[in-house]
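Open question from group meeting: does this chain pack into something compact, or does most of it stay loose? Before anyone orders reagents, we agreed to write out a predicted structure and look at it together. Recording both the input and the output here so the notebook holds the full record.
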Amino acid sequence: MVEIYRDTYKIAKRLGNPLYEIIQKIDMTVSDCADRAYNLSALDSSNPKHNLWLQAAGEYLASHTYDFKIYTSYGSAVEEMVNQYIRANYQAPVNGYSVYLQVRHGNTIPDIVIVDRSGNEAAWLDITSSGTAGHIWDKDGSGWKTTDFVAELLYNPLDFSKIRHSDGPGIGPMACTLSFSRKASIHQRHLKEHLYNGIIASLELIYQTDSVTKSKIADCMQQAFKVKFSFVKHPAIKSLLKQFIETNYAGPYVELVREILRSYYKNDRQDLISAMKFLSESYSLKQLEEDSVFEYYF
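Structure tokens returned:
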């Protein structure tokens, strides 16, 4: 799905616009690659990015346990499959447009940059899971706000029930996978409740302090969740607060959390993986032992 954030010349509304047609074709390829990546037999083990996903997915199928690398390796494999398609189909300009991969602009590297015949960058595109939609605004680089067309090409989040060694999974493995997926879904609900309760407890502690600072917010978060940050804390806190808003958008505490984000974390980047690591470590040890699986998005 093309999630458009900037469309200066309204190309998405122009029927047959050659630039948007290219973007749509690449978007269709993203969705297709996200689906084909589940069929492990279709991947190339000699490709390093394919191989990382093959190893992580293979370990999951063998043990029905996984860690964070399965998400990043899946996303990396999808992106590599899209890149392979682009290299094969856009080596020469199409309708006056050239498609480039991983073009560095200072500290930011758009996944895809489309350049017109005059050499102007007409579009910046980012390939990402719909579970992390909008994360381009946490990236460095003014191009995300000034390029004529800016969008994310979104694919569905990793679905464990679709991972297979071939196009014809047996009934037994599929049933086992579906059962595991149901357990993970229940765990996700518990984790959301844990996040909600922890943030509310943090708010109560924060507003008992004489003066609010970022350090005091972090201290209150650690006290409420009963665990210490063992990594860069402020990007993780920003992600936790934004997850709270996204999962409780109509709740009574949302405006308080938005105010904290505006006042103290406006210029901080996010670190969703570190945030979910913090959340998992603060979860009850007993629950983690019984159901150690969680996703880094909700």
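Observations to bring back to the group:
Residues 171-206 form the longest helix (36 residues).
The chain is about 50% helix and 10% strand.
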